[in-house]
Design the sequence.
């Protein structure tokens, strides 16, 4: 399953490449035909990521929510785009750019209110502007659950997966089996800092690499 850094990277690329364009939408697979009709002709106004969730904001208050899950993929094409596969859940096409979404765990339209309710169930995302380390500390450091398990609880901390969890715990010099309630504030701040640094580097470079490795340029699909 893609971790939060990949979803933020997608949001940044889509923000540069797709925002301001109107799309023709359809569902080759046939599972979201009605949703595709509502998207057709609407201009994309913004793209945001929260943890492992991707939100495309279209004009008229229509929000496309995507969670790739274990098997979801997004393929990007410049014009002309190839024909979609039979597994393509949603196609967004324009004269300049086309997306093929296949196999997501979630592909649905939300209102601003239902999007806000979904986000309210998610924990703090270290990559989101304005993320609160204080709220993250309060959420993470509850109970006796091992820290390694807590870091994967998306209602406590959004966007962290297996690779980021392992790397951050190693860099912060924290034992995975430490009960979360025994984590000191200083230890949490070190862990939070490592998570933010790892995720930002990975969102920029498209891969999780050895700390302080030379950066690579963010390339468009």
Sequence:
């Amino acid at each position: 399953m893609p971790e939060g850094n990949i979803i933020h990277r997608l949001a940044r690329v889509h923000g540069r490449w797709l925002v301001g364009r109107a799309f023709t939408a359809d569902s080759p697979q046939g599972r979201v035909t009605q949703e595709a009709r509502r998207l057709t002709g609407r201009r994309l106004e913004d793209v945001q990521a929260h943890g492992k969730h991707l939100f495309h904001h279209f004009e008229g208050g229509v929000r496309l929510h995507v969670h790739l899950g274990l098997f979801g993929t997004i393929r990007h094409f410049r014009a002309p785009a190839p024909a979609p596969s039979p597994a393509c859940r949603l196609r967004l096409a324009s004269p300049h750019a086309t997306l093929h979404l296949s196999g997501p765990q979630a592909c649905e339209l939300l209102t601003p209110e239902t999007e806000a309710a979904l986000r309210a169930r998610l924990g703090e995302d270290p990559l989101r502007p304005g993320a609160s380390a204080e709220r993250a500390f309060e959420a993470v450091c509850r109970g006796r659950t091992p820290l390694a398990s807590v870091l994967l609880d998306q209602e406590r901390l959004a966007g962290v997966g297996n690779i980021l969890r392992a790397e951050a715990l190693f860099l912060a010099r924290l034992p995975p089996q430490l009960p979360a309630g025994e984590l000191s504030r200083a230890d949490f701040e070190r862990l939070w800092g490592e998570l933010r640094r790892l995720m930002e580097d990975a969102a920029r470079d498209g891969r999780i690499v050895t700390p302080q490795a030379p950066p690579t340029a963010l390339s468009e699909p």
User: Anything to note?
Assistant: The longest strand covers residues 44-50.
